Amino acid sequence: MIIFGTRGVTYNAGEGRFHCPQCGKRTYSQKRVRRFFTLYFIPLIPLDMLGEYIECHACRGTYRTEVLGFDPAVADRRFEAEFQIAARRTMVLMCLADGVIDDQEVTMIRETYGKLADAEITEADVRQEIDVATKDGRSVEDYLGGIVGTLNDSAKEAIVRAAFMVAAADGQFDEKEKQLLGEIGGALQMSPAHLRGVLSTMLQEDTASLPREGRG
Fold first, then answer.
1. CA–CA separation, 61 and 39 (whole Å)
2. Distances from the Cα of 85 to the Cαs of 162, 171, 212, 214, in angstroms?
3. In 3-state terms, what secondary structure has residue 120?
4. Residue 146 CA to its chain's centroid (Å)
5. 55 forms bridges with which residues in the sheet?
6. Per-residue pLDDT tens for 145-181?
7. H or E element: which one contains 8?
């Protein structure tokens, strides 16, 4: 049986110095992601370019290449780490799946974002993200598939963690939610083993946080 397909391959396109908006450190690598035709999971034929990004050597934050012009004296939210932008949109899109986002869900998004990104997000920021996501109209899988070329493994794992925290916010994690997280992992081009590892860690952490009498 012949096994073939495509997958993104990340390679180093250069290094240099910049000012990381997230940690303030100075050195980076420029990464490019190209789709390859694979035969028996071996990349053989280069196809289209999926994207490129700047990765900080210290915090592993990823940014669009425009960050090389970042001036710390003129802070600009355009230079948020890509995982912060994507995690925020992912949470909003998951909450929009039932049509509306209520005040409780807005609060949950703010709290989850604060834990993941170690940064505050205002209610106005969340409301703006809801408006942008609604007008965009893409599903969470389509959105993530469009930006996967700007994310490293750490960013992908952070996005899955954000999605899990939204899915498990009601204290339950059912088969439908597992399926959605599988689709998110697929859109991020994560291997099943990689996705299972992240979810296993999250489930263990979630269980450990329960009061002793509440554990099964």
1. 32
2. 11, 25, 35, 34
3. coil
4. 12
5. 29, 62
6. 999 998 999 899 999 999 998 888 877 777 888 888 9
7. strand 4-17
Q: What ranges make up the beta strands (E) of 18-96?
A: 27-39, 42-56, 62-63
Residues 6+ apart with CB under 8 A from 158: 83, 87, 116
> How far is Cα of residue 188 from the mean position of the Cα atoms in its chain?
8
Q: pLDDT of 185-208, one tens digit each?
A: 999 999 999 999 998 988 887 655
Give CA–CA dist 165/184, Å, rounded.
14
pLDDT of residue 216: 39
Tell me the DSSP string of 167-185: HTTTS---HHHHHHHHHHH
What length does the chain have? 216
Tokens representing 86 are 């994507």
Contact present, 54 and 69 (Cβ < 8 Å): no
Task: State the amino acid at position 103 in one-letter form.
Answer: D
84 - beta bridge partners?
none
| Residue 62 Ramachandran class (φ > 0 left, ψ -120 to 50 alpha, else beta) | beta
CB contact at 8 A, 163 and 177: no
Identify whether the C-beta of residue 179 lies closer than 8 Å to the C-beta of residue 163. no
Segments in 67-191 forming alpha helices (H): 82-95, 103-117, 123-136, 140-147, 153-167, 175-187
